[in-house]
Amino acid sequence: MKKLLVLMMVVAMLVAVFVGCAPSQQATEEPAAEEPATEKPAAEEPATEKPAAEEPLKIMFTNAFYSAPYCAPMIAAAEAKAEELGVDLQILDGKADAATQLAQIENAIAEGVDGILYFPADQESTVTAVRKIVDSGIPFIVINSNVDPSVQDLIGTFIGTDYYQQALVAGQMCLDIANGEAKKVVVIEGAGGTEAQKLRSQGFEEMIAENPGIEIIGKQQADWDPAKAQSVMEDFIAQFGDEIDIVYTQDDGMYAGAAQALKDAGMLDKVQCISIGANATGVAAVKAGELYGTASQSPILEGEMGVEYIIRLIDGEDLPEWVKVETVPVTAENIADFDGQGW
Question: Is 82 exposed, middle or buried (0-12, 13-18, 19+ CB in 10 A)?
Fold first, then answer.
């Protein structure tokens, strides 16, 4: 019995030793490599597209006197500036007709253009057009000839020359020609009712009043049209003949028509002429000694600035009420400074 007890104790000790020497599963087992989680196949993503190019600003420019000689360089300058600045510019012929321009403006509003440039046919008819544009919320700028005074505070800005100042310059040239002597003058005006026509008459007449001997014996409108101006001048020649001392035309295009009538009558070297514009025709005539002088105005600057300023207005910039284009007298004394291309 005693031997059996000893044997059992030996067996127990051997089992304990064996268990104590066996490596622990928890301590030595390397953690199993983590298998990648099984993912669902990713849904095919659409190909990455480049953002669409930003649409260019769309500007409508209604020009009342599209076919007038003065407007050719204006239109070319506006188109060039629009191309430079990446603007989609549509220039429409307003046909010197308020109803046509109003329809063009209404169409532009319906199309949702970004901006409007407005060269109106006359002042009185602008009230309805201006109010329609204002109600649409589309930014707009007036170029060259301002709108009716009753709605001038509604426009974004006006880009143009001071026509009254131009007329004073022309009137001073008339005084210089007269040099204190009595002279008889005929005047060929632009389109009736335009700001330019009215102020170019008012300022001229006020200036020449300094010499009571200067008398306007004839005044007629020719709508900025050289052919009409030639016809008007022919009528003046038939009516007044050699009485005419001075011819004042309200732009260089009409001067060209009047000059042709004077040439045909053999009177160009006997009559002194004054004009406004300093365009290619006017500058060439001053250089040739056929035109005493012309008051400058730049259609190129008006066209370029119209496009530049409408973009600034669309961008929310505050603009001055009137962006003035400078006027200076252009005579034989300073003709070398002018190239006739709108300087």
Answer: buried
